[in-house]
Structures are given as structure tokens and as C-alpha cells.
Amino acid sequence: MGIQMLKLHWRAARWPMLPVLVAAFGLPLMAGSAAWGATYSVDHLSASGAVAVTDGAAVFGLTFAIVAAIAGSILGISAWSWDHRQDHVYALSLPVPRWKYSALKFGGGTILVGATTALFALGATTSSLLANLPAGLRAYPGALSLHFLIATQTAFALLFALASGTMRTATIVLGCVMGLAIFGVPLLDFLGNFWSPLGDFDLVRFAYATLVENDGPLSIFAGNWMLFDV
Amino acid sequence: MSHAIELDDLTWRSGGEFTLDRLSIRVPQGSIYGFLGPNGAGKSTTIRLLMGMMRPHGGRIRMLDGRVPRDLPDVLQRVGYVPERPHLFPQLTVKEAIDYHAAFYRSWDALWATELVERLDLRPDQRIRRMSKGQTGKLMILLALAVRPYLLVLDEPTDGLDPVIRRDIMTTVLDYVAETEATIFISSHLVHELERFCDWVGVVDDGRLITELPVQDFKNGIKRLRLENASDALLQRPPFSLLDRLPANGIRSCEEWVVQGWEQPHRQLLEREGVMVREVVDLDLEEGFVELLRSTRLQRAREDR
To answer: pTM, whole model, 2 decimals?
Structure first.
């Protein structure tokens, strides 16, 4: 059952996932390419070489987070897309409890998250092995891959849960988020005319701080995404 | 008599309106039970409740000696199901769909599934989304049969298919039943099709069961009578139910009654009252079904007024 569910998930996700997989493998390679075969003169301060390498790698930090978010989202949405199209009739007529069916789907998605991370780790490790780092710098392919794994799994779990509901539920949730994003700031400005603390309230800043900073549920997407660091 | 399906007072509402109103059905083990009703009568809703896809608002469901939804996974292991609309994943090939389905059933008969692929003229490498409606219907039947089910639940399995494919599908199903004595619960509004092989029939309209009896009793009991000198006095306490009454006119030389519960002694009874029974015509299942529906709706309209 698990293998069939995994196959089915891959069939549903494979085309949108292909460019993401290429990116997951290629971006760590590109991130480290500045340090491949680099030489550092003895009289040159190694710090300046280190700065050049870390700057090169830092540029790609944000792209790792984006790839993780996209990969997780595609896998989360595609887990249920075929079931939604058939009104879940097939799934509900199969002789498995609903929790088990969902768990099998989630398991299949997690394996695909693992496979995406494995490609990322392969790229990061290859890049690290090819890099000639100046003194004081180290490569962290393992830690970066773990970071990527947790971020991708977080995005997958979130979208999996959202997509598992009915279209109505998903529309309500997304509608609320979009509504807050579009109308939240002007609405607070307007309400601020009647009660001044509301006018000073920065909704975007608050949402970012709650979700991404301060150990929020999406904080994994922030933080250190460096392949090379001290 | 043991029953493959027992529904007791099954009630389900859709948005406050009654869709099913205290529906009770008994499907005898080993029978081919035709579940008849016009479009929108509640046939597919009943089947979805039976398969545990929706929770009833009231009543009790038992299928193959298991409670639904409590024992659902175990019960569904022994049930082959063909839904009203194709439910398979369109990107899969025939072989992939078979492999996927097989993974969920302990009793899956892989050898027979392979035989059925050939018998039903399916190509294992063909994608489902490129298959015709008939081929998809065949594949759904294959998946339902290769489970080796004790009970087949078929929701309008041949609706919209051409006669050749309809015959292929029904022949395959009937061969299986002949071999295994499985029970079939088949819903359809194509009454004439069911007449050939059903041995029990249940008629549902507007979410209510109108009648449930062996097909032979259904057909024997409903007759069209051609009468002369028919009088209203006879209708004060009739020994049968009068479903329809068509007076004589330019086309009909004598009055016609459609009656339910007709028996041979009723002829003498009518003749004693001075009514001449010119002819007693057997109705086929479809005519009987139409007359029964018509009279039930008339009666309901009268009650509502």
C-alpha cells in the first residue's frame, strides 16, 4: 500500500517537481562554485578570501529557503489533487480507515521530501568537497541539508493539512490570509482614527515576527542558510 | 433468510431537506437486487451511505454482517464497488490502476485480473484519461470483480454505454455471480435492462421506498385490465390497488385499469358485479415501474393537498 501510494504521489507531483529537483541539486553547487579550486596567497589576509567565499554562498541562502518552500508546497498540494478531482470517491471506497489512508499519503510525501533533500545534500556535499576554503572557514553540508529537510517538511505538512480539507475550507483559510494581507493595513489605519493604538499597530511586522521570528512556526525559513561559515 | 444488506430507517438530509426518509431495505444473500428509481430519487445517496462515504442522520446500516460505518474496512474488503461516475486516477495506465487497487485488498486475484484484462479487451499500457467511457466502465468492473467480492455494489454501471459494451459488462458480472453466488446490489433507471437478470426489486422515489419484492411477484401483481361496464361502485372496496384508470375514448374502445395485487379470483369478483373483463395484460417491469411511480406521486400530491 505504502509503495503504491508513494508511486501515485510521485506521478501526481513529478512534472512540477522536476525543475525544483534540478534547483535543489544545482543551487548548492552554484553556491560553492566561487570556492572551487580557489587559491589564497600566503601574504594575503585569509580573512578577505573568507569574506569573498561567504558572500558568494550567502547570495544563495535565500534561494535555498525558497526552493524548500516550493518543494514542500508542491508535494503538499499534489498529495490530494487527484483525490479532490474525483470527489474522494475512490479513497473513501477503499478498505482502509481514513486515518491510515491519510498517514500513507503523508508518509509517501515525507519520503519524497527526503528524496529532494538527498539531492540537495548531494549537491551541497559535492560543492563542499570541490571547494578549497581559506583558513578559518568550514563547510556545513550536513547541517544545511538538515535545515533544508526541516523547512521542506514544514511547508509540506502545512500545505498537506490545508489541501486535505474541502475546497471550501481551503478557500476560507486562504481568503482570510489574503483578506488580511490586502485589507488589514488600510483597515487598521482607518480604525486608528477612532482608537489611536490601532493606527500605530504594524500588522505586517507583527505577522512576520509571530510566524517567522521568535521561534514562530515558520522560523525554519529564516536563520542561517550558509554552506560555508566560520 | 439472511441478508447481504440491511438498511433500517435510514435517514439523510441535505441542507434541511429530506433526501432519504426512513428508508428500509433488505437485500437477500445471493440475490440480484435491482434498486430502481428515477433520476434524483436517492439511489446514489443510498449507495454512498452504504459504502460509508457519508454518515446517515438516522437509522442503521448492516452489510455482510458488519455494521457500517463501525466495521467498514473489514466489510469493504469483501465488497466490489462501481460508482456512478468514473473515479479512477486519469494519469495512470490500466496496469498501474490495477496494481494500485490490488494493494488494498487481501483477496485480490491477480491471475483472474489478468484474464479479465484480455476478456474485456483492455490494453495494460493504455492511460485511463485516453480511454473511452466504455473502456473505463470495463476497467471499473474489472477492479470490482478481481477483489473476488461477496457483494457487488453497482451504481448505474452501464449508464451511457453502448449496447455491445453493456452486454460485455453484464455478461462478465453474471458469469461471476453464477460461479460464486455473490450478491449484487445494482441501481439503475434503465429498468428494461434489469428485468432480464434481477430476482429482487426495490423501487425508490423522492427518498422513500415504494415497494420491495421479488421481481416475479412485482410483474405478476401489476396488470392492465380492459373492462366493459366498469363502475365507480366497484371502487368503494376494491380487492386490489388501482394504480391508474383510463376511461374509454375514441382510441380506447373500453376502459383500462392498471392494478396492483391482481389475482385470478378477482376476475370472477368483477364479473359478479357486472363488469366484463375483456383482457388481462401482463406488464413488463418497466411499464409496472412507471405505473407504480405515477400512482404513488398522484397519491402523495393528493395527501399534500
So the answer is: 0.85
